[in-house]
Amino acid sequence: MQEPILSIAGLSKVYSGGVKALDDVDLEIRKGEIFALLGPNGAGKTTLIGAVCGLVRPSGGVITAFGHNLKNDWRSARARIGLVPQELSTDMFETVERAVSYSRGLFGHAPDKARIHEILRSLSLYEKRSSQIRELSGGMKRRVLIAKALAHEPELLFLDEPTAGVDVELRKDMWEQISALRERGTTIILTTHYIEEAEEMADRVGIIRGGKILMVDDKAAMMKRLGRTEAVLQLAEPLSELPPSIAAFPLELSADGRELCFRGGDGTGKGRQQVADLTKALIAAGIDFTGIDIRESSLEDIFVSLLTEQEEPA
Fold this sequence. Notes:
This protein is α/β, with parallel strands linked by helices and about 325 residues long. The protein is about 35% helix and about 25% strand.
């Protein structure tokens, strides 16, 4: 099995005053994947990224990137890591091209105008290369942050809320750019409040709350294992109660008796098969229905459900 590109073991961070931002975090990132780290505000996502990128000093634990222990040999690994921060922190009076070129030089790379122009074109920034950053829209400024992070050609790229504050059209455009980066072999760790981003792009998903990792799994496996199927069936004639032949199904009868609501498949991934079995049972019982609407859980449904389960009692 291939060695992980990033390995985190027992990582903790306690700030002055006793605030525990990270609590014994274990995580491994595979080369070439897109990994989405999801969690509410204050969950520890940005602290985790900061610890790997050398911006936060951990209280304990070991971080290994590209086979280098970051505590003892951080320079060798850090040059291969890129970061797009959540905050728009850059010199607003600098031109786009100079800002991106400067970031390349910070990591010891020789000037390469052709490569810088290639990055700017890929992010639709080339026409703005001579503009001061302060003149750009919020979405374009965020693209500049991505260009700066890519300037030294990192193998591992952190994107901390990369589409925060940009409109839906620009967000989808940036999704395409992120997918293109993965196709070129870049490993990407993404934090986001937009769970549809994780559902659209991620190979694996991690959920963090209160500095603890609640779950890490392949996205498809997580959705199959924790998702559920909901189906609403419109009945041709109202029912006053559920007949015994269908009472064993996870059903609710509407107040007017004209709809059956099915919620099942939890933990089995067999919700649609259960709906098919239900329709057969209805037909066998002589209960006619005129329509059926089936919906599968989204990643957001699963995320909200997990966080709700983890809430401590008042």
